[in-house]
Design brief:
The complex is a heterodimer of chains A (764) and B (243). Chain A is α/β, with parallel strands linked by helices and 764 residues long. Chain A is built from 25 helices and 25 strands. In chain B, 30% of the residues lie in helices and 20% in strands. The chains are: A alpha/beta (764), B alpha+beta (243).
Chain lengths: 764, 243
């Protein structure tokens, strides 16, 4: 979406940039002063870079004293985070100096999973990897080489896998996170909502948070905009079974029955249409299928939704009236992590997109805004290989109506076990903690045991690293060049570059060096033509008339004029089959799918169990920060939120520890501390995700808190995309070795119950 | 001379802990210590409805600080700018002030064995910078400034918008740190973290003063303790205004 910036404007702008370096150096000098009572009086050097404590990519300034990183701060030049950083960003120093880091290339000498290693040279490591990958490829074919990448550093190896024609690439960070949402929005608006989501919270009149617990997930600039928006007087509605941080700041909290979100959204859509409270102008000009939508949702009355969602009709109406009042300045947050229930995940986000459309809340100030296209895509290493003309045959991902890039992770895991439709014999996990990101880790381990070869490249030893044949130590984001990043999903677009703040520690290497060496040893000499990673980045920047030096001269960032809002020179365009916003999707109908989302009740708790839902701690980025000393010390273990009435009934007190056991008999790694609160519904319990690492080498994270992922053994896939729902697992509590009786606190309405029982019978 | 104070806007705090980490980095503190804190409270029912908030805090830089009175060596003092500071040269690490502070704002830094606390970022503020926690706070929930300057943001928050200190009728040391927020959130904090008076007993005082002699035996601390004790006797009650 959005108009491209004219090349002329761009050149004008870059020449302006060239004239300003002195100003910026003067500003940067202010960073050089240290506090007076610091040990020593050495001057402090500053380097700008890009954070990687999570995926948000805030701009940072590192302060270095005698070669040691002493402080990380937000880069005041950043149009997004400015001088601000979250706890994790501030604590990045502790990743760099983590004594448990991977330091040298390692070779497995024990059994897989045993954790016995021998230090080897880089030369031996590269030779072993190249030999094994080549052997597997020659014996089993290109598809037998699978890659599980994560983060920017894996981009180089991804390029190589793409170039040789492997489709066995999967990013759980997309598939098991925001993939469904992206497809749901793409089917409606023709484009996903982006990362960061292009949601104009700072300038809106009403925010709707449905499927995001902003605040507990510190997506930094978005949190800043959310609070700024509230400060400007915006109202907010939060839909969550739990009284989250966002709910505590909201005007309306809707404590919804888990799994019934689509019913609520359909009722809103129906109410707004029936009462003529929708944006008629936007709908008639830009949308298609309105009448069919109207017909398809007319069953979704407020009363119908009340029964299903357990929210009173009055409250549902109040929220809808608030939307109508502020329309179109309504920021309907598209959500992010969307693999909840398997069934209906993509359709839920499509329903949210439809709601956004009928409110006209698109392409305007205070709504879901437009991406600004930069004049040129950053160049990448070309990596054009003459791939062997191998017949691919049926590809795993082709069984799904809609695809994200690559193959669903659980499909790759199952194919590795079964060898069908093709053998998968060598895995590379690059910065990807597969055993903690993808449900049912036991099954993943079974797959790993089938492999001829497993390579893990990471910064700290993940659980999967315990099974690796070779582990390679990668440099942390504070020690390496990486890539240049473009930010186009922001009101002001910009470019920045990740670069080393300090010299690399131990024998860690950068991703370009590692990839180039492996690939060249395999015989692919032409894939990575540059001498080093820096040269590669310079080549990627050159088309912009930019260089690392120029970016540094302007304070580590180069900004461009943004065009987030539609106007006569920047008209709305929709990359859908009809060229319009598809309220009713003919293309989905052709595939035999619901052209308008339909509510389907997801998996319900068996008798004696309760649904386990999960979220984030603001101090952690899932599993990867658990061993960070500073973050760990302030959030060492997770807790289980339990409704106070439920707790009273089963005799559990605040602060008590309970073991968990799921519906398949899997027990938690240890007991979890209970937080008794009226701030959660009695039909679910909540915990912060991805605690309790099984890796003994991680001295802080090991067995600290309870791991939720091993309790997710039930696999229910979204029939549209093949992603796996993670909120369809249920637990019961064990206290002093005794199973506690679980009362049914809120029962389903009888119609829903019978419909659900019927479906279970049909589906088995 | 300015009189510095801080206001926490609870409506803006999201409990992210950036302040805690920035403080730890800025002052190169031990990995498990910080001069400020974030404590989640709730969700709980209050007379004003269901509430959940964060008790964010640091040294209240009280007008009538109990810690200053209890310091046997005059190491702890009230500076002209309103901050309560510790002269590390004089501090013997006895811990009296830790007991005396009803907010838990002090601790022994195991690196130098001296008491450590928030200084409102002494040094940074002299250079015209914001304290490290304020600078990093993503949502601007922390507002720092001069309580005597009618144009300052803190003045407005305290004297016009009604920010309140965490104090009770029984324990009111007249904090210079104030809280602004929904009634239900203020209620939660006042209910859970109301200051309680902790008296430092005379025997405890004596023991803590002389313990370095008995236990440590290091000549430096013997001399420091001796000088400090002599100082205290010489200065009597007028320790607060010195330095």
């Amino acid at each position: 979406m959005g108009r491209k910036i004219a090349r002329r404007d761009f050149l004008k702008y870059s020449s302006l940039l060239a004239a300003t370096p002195f100003l910026d150096i003067a500003t940067l000098r202010t960073f050089k002063k240290g506090p007076p009572d610091r040990v020593g009086t050495e001057s402090v050097d500053t380097v700008t870079s890009v954070c990687e404590m999570c995926f948000w990519r805030c701009l940072i300034v590192g302060k270095v004293k005698n070669g040691r990183l002493v402080k990380l701060e937000g880069n005041p030049k950043s149009p997004s985070n400015g001088e601000k950083l979250c706890a994790r960003g501030n604590a990045g120093i502790q990743l760099l100096y983590d004594p448990d880091r991977l330091k040298y290339p390692l070779k497995r000498i024990g059994k897989r999973g045993e954790g016995k290693w021998a230090r080897i040279s880089w030369e031996e490591a590269i030779n072993t990897i190249a030999e094994n990958m080549k052997r597997v490829k020659e014996k089993y074919g290109i598809q037998s080489l699978a890659l599980f990448p994560h983060n920017a550093s894996a981009r180089y190896i991804m390029k190589f896998y793409e170039a040789i024609g492997s489709e066995s690439i999967t990013e759980p960070s997309i598939y098991q996170c925001r993939g469904n949402r992206d497809i749901g929005y793409k089917l409606t608006f023709g484009t996903p909502p982006g990362s960061p989501e292009r949601i104009d919270l700072a300038n809106t009149k009403l925010m709707l948070f449905h499927g995001t617990h902003l605040g507990e997930n510190v997506h930094l600039s978005q949190c800043m905009e959310w609070i700024r928006g509230l400060g400007n007087g915006a109202k907010s509605i939060v839909v969550d079974p739990r009284f989250s941080t966002a709910a505590s700041k909201a005007d309306i909290w809707l404590g919804i029955r888990p799994g019934t979100d689509t019913a609520l959204i359909l009722a809103w859509i129906n109410y707004l249409i029936t009462n003529n409270l929708y944006d008629r102008d936007f709908v008639s000009r830009y949308c298609t299928g309105f009448e069919k939508l109207k017909e398809a949702v007319k069953h979704a009355t407020l009363k119908w939704a009340e029964r299903i969602t357990d929210i009173t009709a009055e409250k549902i109406k109040k929220a809808a009236d608030l939307m109508a009042k502020h329309m179109p300045q309504v920021a309907v947050h598209p959500g992010r992590h969307s693999t909840w229930y398997g069934v209906g995940d993509t359709q839920r986000h499509r329903a949210m997109a439809i709601l956004t459309a009928i409110l006209g809340a698109y392409g305007k100030k205070g709504t879901l805004f437009l991406e600004t296209q930069l004049p040129i895509q950053l160049g990448q290493s070309p990596c054009t290989l003459e791939t062997e003309d191998e017949k691919k045959g049926e590809l795993l991902r082709e069984k799904w109506p809609y695809n994200l890039p690559g193959t669903p992770p659980s499909d790759l895991i199952e194919a590795t076990i079964s060898g069908k439709p093709y053998p998968i014999k060598a895995w590379t996990l690059w910065g990807q903690n597969l055993l903690e990101t993808t449900p049912n880790p036991k099954r993943t381990i079974e797959a790993i045991q089938q492999l001829d070869f497993l390579l893990v490249v990471d910064v700290i030893p993940t659980p999967a690293a315990l099974y690796a044949d070779i582990i390679l130590p990668e440099q942390t984001y504070l020690e390496r060049y990486d890539v240049a990043f473009t930010y186009t999903n922001t009101l002001t677009p910009y470019i920045s570059v990740r670069q080393p703040i300090v010299k690399p520690l131990y024998e860690s290497k950068d991703p370009y060096w590692i990839t180039k060496n492996i690939v060249e040893k395999m015989g692919y000499k032409e894939c990575f033509p540059y001498n080093d990673i820096k040269e590669n980045i310079e080549e990627s920047l050159a088309p912009f008339g930019l260089s690392i030096e120029k970016i540094n001269a302007t304070g580590g960032v180069v900004t461009f004029p943004g065009e987030p809002y539609a106007d006569s020179s920047n008209p709305l365009k929709f990359d859908t089959p009809s060229g319009k916003v598809e309220l009713y999707s003919e293309s989905m109908k052709e595939k035999g799918l619901d052209p308008v989302p339909r509510f389907e009740l997801p998996e319900q708790a068996p008798k004696g169990f309760i649904r386990l839902v999960y979220g984030r701690s603001p101090l952690h980025t899932m599993s990867r920060t658990q061993n960070n000393a500073w973050l760990h010390n302030n959030a060492p273990e997770n807790e289980l939120w339990m409704n106070d009435k439920l707790a009273r009934q089963i005799g559990v007190k605040n602060g008590e520890y309970l073991e968990l056991e799921n519906q398949d008999g899997v027990r938690s790694n240890k007991s979890i501390k209970v937080k008794v609160t009226p701030g959660i519904r009695p039909d679910c319990v909540f915990t912060q995700a991805l605690y309790g690492s099984p890796v003994k080498m991680l001295s802080k994270a090991y067995n600290s808190g309870v791991a939720d992922n091993p309790l997710f053994t039930k696999i229910i896939k979204d029939p549209l995309v093949g992603t796996v729902g993670m909120r369809v697992n249920f637990v019961r509590f064990i206290k002093n070795g005794k199973v506690l009786d679980m009362p049914e606190m809120i029962s389903l309405p009888s119609q829903l119950k019978s419909a659900y029982a019927e479906r279970r019978e049909i589906n088995g | 001379m300015a009189k510095y104070g801080m206001v926490f806007d609870l409506d803006k705090c999201i409990g992210c802990h950036a302040c805690v980490m920035a403080c730890r980095a800025e002052w190169e503190l031990p990995a498990d210590k910080s001069r400020c804190w974030v404590k989640p409270i709730g969700p709980e029912n209050t007379p004003y409805g269901l509430a959940s908030t964060f008790y964010i805090g640091l040294c209240n830089q009280c007008e009538e600080p109990s810690c200053v009175k209890e310091c046997p060596t005059t190491a702890t003092y009230k500076a002209d700018n309103g901050a309560v500071l510790v002269n590390k040269e004089l501090c013997i690490g006895c811990g009296n002030c830790i007991i005396a502070c009803p907010y838990g704002a002090r601790y022994i830094n195991e690196i130098d064995k001296k008491v450590d606390k928030c200084t409102f970022c002494e040094g940074r503020i002299q250079r015209g910078e914001q304290p490290a926690c304020v600078k990093t706070c993503p949502t601007n929930a922390r507002i720092f400034g001069d309580l005597e300057n009618k144009n300052s943001a803190v003045y407005k928050k305290v004297y016009e918008e009604g920010a309140v200190p965490i104090a009770t009728a029984r324990v009111n040391l007249h904090p210079n740190v104030f809280y602004l927020g929904k009634e239900r959130d203020i209620h939660l904090i006042a209910d859970s973290y109301a200051p309680a008076k902790n008296d430092v007993s005379i025997s405890n005082q004596l023991w803590r003063i002389f313990s370095p002699l008995v236990v440590g035996g290091a000549s430096a601390s013997i001399i420091a303790a001796f000088i400090a004790f002599a100082n205290q006797i010489r200065k009597g009650e007028q320790t607060e205004e010195d330095e």
